[in-house]
TrEMBL record, chain A:
<keyword id="KW-0472">Membrane</keyword>
<feature type="transmembrane region" description="Helical">
    <location>
        <begin position="157"/>
        <end position="182"/>
    </location>
</feature>
<feature type="transmembrane region" description="Helical">
    <location>
        <begin position="71"/>
        <end position="92"/>
    </location>
</feature>
<dbReference type="InterPro" id="IPR000515">
    <property type="entry name" value="MetI-like"/>
</dbReference>
<dbReference type="GO" id="GO:0055085">
    <property type="term" value="P:transmembrane transport"/>
</dbReference>
<comment type="similarity">
    <text>Belongs to the binding-protein-dependent transport system permease family.</text>
</comment>
<feature type="transmembrane region" description="Helical">
    <location>
        <begin position="203"/>
        <end position="225"/>
    </location>
</feature>
<keyword id="KW-1133">Transmembrane helix</keyword>
<dbReference type="InterPro" id="IPR051393">
    <property type="entry name" value="ABC_transporter_permease"/>
</dbReference>
UniProtKB/TrEMBL annotation, chain B:
<dbReference type="InterPro" id="IPR006059">
    <property type="entry name" value="SBP"/>
</dbReference>
<keyword id="KW-0813">Transport</keyword>
<comment type="similarity">
    <text>Belongs to the bacterial solute-binding protein 1 family.</text>
</comment>
<dbReference type="InterPro" id="IPR050490">
    <property type="entry name" value="Bact_solute-bd_prot1"/>
</dbReference>
<keyword id="KW-0732">Signal</keyword>
<dbReference type="Pfam" id="PF01547">
    <property type="entry name" value="SBP_bac_1"/>
</dbReference>
<feature type="signal peptide">
    <location>
        <begin position="1"/>
        <end position="25"/>
    </location>
</feature>
<protein>
    <submittedName>
        <fullName>Carbohydrate ABC transporter substrate-binding protein (CUT1 family)</fullName>
    </submittedName>
</protein>
């Protein structure tokens, strides 16, 4: 296999992947950014508008509502998923009773198609037919009933909870894999040195799992900016676009209003935002490693 | 050859195969036009906006089957079926790479753009060659003309309004609505239904802003048709006194509890289900749901044009019998005589008396008017519509929501539901429409 270690052969073998990546990922992004400077209805020729779509975007109330919703989901999902999935992984990494069953149960939402996840949660959160409001009714606590989905306030929080439920098992699995990578002799040495459980986690496990934590964080950040089916299935972005996220609003503008140019400007901003947050996170964690 | 060199050449060959395979896989297969079927017949594709034409557009399916049987060995129509949203996307993609089907359905708000892009055939020649069809269309085709000619023909005739369940009206002791029923009378009706725990008017806004057909009459009765041209020309705003008053009426309905509490989380189909199950007294829709109501509600079904408004100066005797979305023909059809002949033969059949009879059998009003057409006694919903149509009220040439571009149309839907869901005031809702119009200029 000596010949494989030569640079030119490595490049040769990478070319097909690079070609596919360029054609199917990089090129569409460039085209989308190009369209974001135009007015285009999907038919005929696009008309160059300069930065008009971006100016419109910053004046568009619905863009700011989608942005706010995306940020609510991001903050909630990031905090809840990162902390709870790590803690659950720590718990499941011990030889507890029914640990395998628990792992399977926690992982199970991750294998359900997102569109089905949405349907399931409609039956839980719907203001009329949903289980939560019906339970509150049955308990005589009708005053606590809310429009968990389809209202102006609760929808982004509900979507964050649904996303959390869906992603938890997947991220727990990644953390468990990370925990398994920590050498047993290190953990045993820590115990022999008399460290408490908290100290073990704080000074040994977390530092040794930094790369896993970073991976999970990036997965959450990029995942939040791709949430689509859950919103479509639970609220359809309504009422009146008030529960849209950046992605669903971009989709609505592009395909429902046939405003491709403006839709692409929304997509570009979403892409940049995701890139910036991921970059900032990577930068901050890299700094700490020094 | 030593083994190192052999491995090297094998790798190069494999890489080349992958690259060539990938690139050839990406390549366009080109236009599939003027095909010959297994029996040597000319095959034409019909792009339709439902995934399962046999179930969801059974009348069109039956017309196509009848045409295929009649022309076996000569012509054959095949469906290119996809749900409305996918169909819309597919047609746009197909228009961009010249792979449009020979005939296809288009949303009325999008069709003019296709016409401007020059991808649609001017059907004036077809109408001039078939004067009996032109006469049967009775001017309904005029909704689909522009500077480029007759870019489409009406797919069907849409009769839109409010269906009601007579049994529920009897149960709460409310008189059936008539042509004389006013908005104030309607508010009284709603209160009775609310007292009895019945949803007065079933409607859902999730992913179905388009499902506002019952309010087309409301818009028309506040002068939509009279003012839309000046609004689109920029001489007037949507946010005008007439439409503010109109939208205030919708707000009034919302405040009176006309709509389901969860209208934001249910779709058009869920709302229809409430009506079918006898949980809602009224449901706004069109003739395409007649067959379903015959099955579920039967003879207890009634039909109404919606309330009239005493504070409007515009004509209140407005019905809504309007052309539905157009079917259009790919301009490239003209390049192949055989295909054009097949397409024109199909259109001749589609607008024939025979096809109109098939339409009536399926409780759908065809775009054409022929003598002697009627529904059978068991087509309850269609008969209810025919009874209401007997008043002879005039209809606008096009439904209000189809008179604007898709961006403004979407803003109209958003605004209507915004007021109904009390997220916008009437003025805010109309400002949104003005903003959408401004952005689309």
């Amino acid at each position: 296999m000596y010949w494989l270690s030569k640079k030119r052969y490595k490049i040769g073998l990478l070319i097909p992947t690079l070609l596919v990546y360029s054609v199917f990922i990089v090129l569409p992004i460039i085209i989308a950014v190009g369209y974001s400077f135009t007015r285009y209805s999907g038919i005929g020729k696009a008309k160059f508008l300069g930065i008009a779509n971006y100016v419109r975007l910053f004046k568009d109330k619905l863009f700011w509502i989608s942005f706010k919703n995306t940020m609510i989901i991001f903050v909630l999902a990031f905090v809840l998923l990162l902390t709870l999935s790590f803690l659950i992984a720590l718990l499941l990494n011990h030889h507890l009773r029914a640990v395998d069953v628990s792992k399977a149960l926690i992982f199970s939402p991750a294998i359900i198609a997102p569109i089905i996840v949405g349907i399931i949660w409609v039956y839980i959160l719907d203001p009329n037919i949903g289980i939560i409001n019906n339970i509150l009714d049955a308990l005589g606590a009708s005053g606590l009933k809310q429009k968990w989905i389809g209202g102006e306030f609760w929808s982004p929080y509900s979507i964050a909870i649904i996303y959390f439920w869906q992603q938890l098992g997947y991220l727990v699995t990644i953390f468990i894999a990370g925990l398994k990578m920590i050498p047993n002799d290190v953990l045993e040495a820590v115990k022999i040195d008399g460290a408490t459980g908290f100290q073990e986690v704080r000074y040994v496990i977390i530092p040794m799992m930094k790369s896993t934590i970073s991976t999970v964080a990036v997965l959450i950040i990029t995942g939040v900016f791709k949430i689509f089916e859950i919103v479509q299935q639970t609220t359809g972005g309504g009422p009146n676009h008030l529960s849209e996220t950046l992605v669903t609003y971009s989709y609505s503008m592009t395909f429902t209003s046939s405003d491709y140019g403006y839709g692409m400007s929304l997509a570009t901003v979403t892409f940049l935002l995701s890139l910036i947050i991921t970059g900032v996170y990577s930068f901050l964690t890299r700094e700490k490693e020094r | 050859m030593n083994s190192k060199r052999l491995k090297k050449w094998c790798s190069v060959a494999m890489v080349s195969m992958v690259v060539v395979g990938t690139l050839s896989g990406c390549g366009s297969s080109g236009k599939e036009s003027s095909k010959e079927g297994d029996g040597g017949e000319v095959v034409i594709n019909f792009g339709i906006h439902v995934a399962n034409p046999k179930e969801q557009e059974s009348v069109t399916y039956n017309i196509v089957q009848a045409f295929n049987e009649k022309n076996a060995g000569k012509y054959k129509v095949e469906f290119q079926a996809a749900d409305t949203e996918s169909h819309s996307k597919n047609m746009k993609l197909a228009a961009s790479d010249n792979t449009l089907p020979e005939i296809f359905w288009l949303d009325a708000s999008e069709a003019p753009k296709y016409s401007n892009a020059g991808v649609l055939l001017d059907l004036n020649d077809f109408l001039n060659e078939n004067t009996e069809i032109k006469a049967a269309l009775g001017g309904m085709e005029s909704a689909f003309t522009d500077d480029n000619g007759q870019y489409g023909l009406p797919y069907q005739c849409n009769v839109q309004g409010i269906f009601y369940n007579k049994e529920l009206f009897d149960k709460v002791g409310v008189a059936y609505p008539t042509d004389e029923t006013t908005y104030e009378d309607m508010l009284g009706m709603l209160a009775k239904f609310k007292e009895n725990g019945i949803t007065p008017l079933s409607i859902g806004s999730k992913n179905s802003g388009f499902a506002m057909w019952e309010f087309n009459e409301t818009l028309a009765r506040y002068g939509w048709e009279e003012n839309i041209d000046s609004i689109l020309a920029g001489d007037k705003k949507f946010n005008n006194e007439d439409l503010v008053t109109c939208f205030e009426k919708l707000k009034g309905l919302a405040e009176a509890g006309a709509f389901p509490e969860n209208m934001a989380t249910i779709e058009y189909f869920d709302a229809k289900q409430l009506f079918n199950e006898g949980k809602a007294a009224m449901f706004g829709t069109g003739q395409w749901d007649c067959a379903e109501f015959d099955k579920n509600i039967g003879e207890k079904i009634g039909f109404w044009w919606g309330p009239t408004f005493t504070d409007s100066d515009y004509d209140q005797e407005v019905a809504m019998k309007v052309p539905s979305a157009p079917i259009v023909v790919n301009a490239e059809v003209a390049e192949d005589e055989e295909v054009q002949e097949a397409v024109f033969e199909f259109l001749k059949f589609y607008y024939s008396k025979e096809a109109a009879e098939l339409s009536y059998e399926g409780s759908i009003f065809p775009a054409t008017n022929y003598e002697g057409m009627s529904a059978t006694d068991t087509q309850y919903a269609m008969n209810a519509m025919l009874d209401t149509l007997a008043s002879g009220w005039d209809s606008p040439s096009t439904a209000p929501d189809l008179t604007v571009t898709s961006a403004v149309q979407e803003a109209l839907y958003n605004s209507l539901f915004g007021v109904m869901q009390e997220t916008y005031t009437p003025e805010e809702a109309l400002d949104l429409m003005d903003e959408a119009l401004e952005n689309s200029k």
